[in-house]
Fold this sequence. Notes:
The complex is a heterodimer. In chain A, about 30% of the residues lie in helices and about 35% in strands. By secondary structure, chain A is an alpha+beta fold. Chain A has one domain: Alpha-Beta Plaits (2-Layer Sandwich). The termini of chain A are close together. Classes of the chains: A alpha+beta, B mainly alpha.
Amino acid sequence: MKYLLLMYADEAIGARYSKEELQAAGKVWAEFRQEIAASGVLMSSSGVAPGSSVTTVRVRNDKTMITDGPFAETHEQLGGYFLVDCKDLDEAILWAGKVPTAAYGSIEIRPLWAPGS
Amino acid sequence: MSAAEQVESIFREEHGRVLAALIGHFGDFDLAEDALQDALVEALERWKVAGIPNNPGAWLTTVARRRAIDRVRRSVALERSLPLLDSQPSYDEHDMDETQIPDERLKLMFTCCHPALAPEAQIALTLHTLGGLTTHEIARAFLVPEPTMAQRLARARAKIRNAGIPYRVPPIELLPERLDALLAVLYLIFNEGYSATGGDEPIRKELCLEAIRLCRVLVALMPESAETRGLLALMLLHDSRRLTRLDEAGELVLLGEQDRLRWDRAEIHEGIEALDEALALNDPGPYQVQAAISALHAGAPSAELTDWRQIAALYRSLAIMTPSLVVEINRAVALGMADGPQAGLSILDALGDLAQGYYPFHVVRADLFRRLGRTEEASASYRRALALCDNPAERAHLQRQLDPLTGEGSEHGKA
């Protein structure tokens, strides 16, 4: 089954990092990327730009409404995603727990919708 | 037992095993449930005429499998607009008795209690699929409208399917935490039946008995798990006192005041046996410790003649395994009995601010003050407890404790 692992975290945390903390975080990320790439479950992944760059669009009565900022104003913002192909939810949970931001943010596991499967 | 009751008891007994086998075979919760319903309807009619088969579980599994295949064929035919195949199978009822059904209930238990499902969904699903309780029965037991419960079950089944919750016994690295979660669900089911003072009593009792029944099944499937046996012991020992927990007026009766002659001796015996088997596995855990405490109460002729020192020591072990306010307050009670009220108060005084908002803290404190003759502090503590408690039965009990201390018995005493 295919799952989207969505990383949510408080953007301010990374911004406050010292040089040493940034280096340490970079090392943890590099190790994680290597591990998930070698596992064969990873289909694609990317970070997304911070909440300040987000635009939300709604069409109501044929009128397009454009607003600044994300759909939901919450403390934790989407920081990126991993699309993985796993045997079952337990395997997806295992990988979600290894994503470095899980240690201070949250990883939401979204199964891709596959009607009738 | 009437024939109808006998059939009903077989359905209840076989439900989990047959359903687990069907899910294992077809990998589809909804299909398995629908097919089992078909088989149960067929059994009701068939068994009236032909009698109950030697191996009803095998009969139900075989028939349900055929009905499931019918259903799949029908939906495939609908999709492809093909003519329906002849779905009336011929089968030898003798064969069915011989069929070996693999016991897949353990997988089903772990799937129903997967932590990705909400706790109330885990409970409902476990009672429905393994316990064979109807949606109506579960809704009544949990005091929610039937459509709400039906929706809760449907959502849980949909999540199992759509989120890919596995149908298996968890691998060794996940097993300890998943087993903990499973035991917690069984204990929640038991407590829902045991602690509630409202609602429909017979249905509540049903929850206690069902939790015990499912735990027995789990002990048989995982005989090496000490905590599973510990939980079984704990539930049996608690359940032995169930009938003495409420008086005729429905008021709560505390352990010290219960009629010990009415405790269920057979259940106590079985509980202690289960505890001994658990302890022999030499893998201690919180359920075993709690069962040991319960066993000491069960074996004591009165509250005064209880081995409170041993109980206090067991609460100390429990506090190390699972530190909590409740455990510390219970330890204070036990030590207050073993070494006098002052010893109990010392433990309570060390608990800090968090305890202040928890009414049992004030109840125990009040009782210890009362025994020391510090009436004013006792009254004040009972009032703090009353201000924090909203369970009517417990409030009435607290008021009965407070009245003699303040000389206001006439106002509330008859209420």
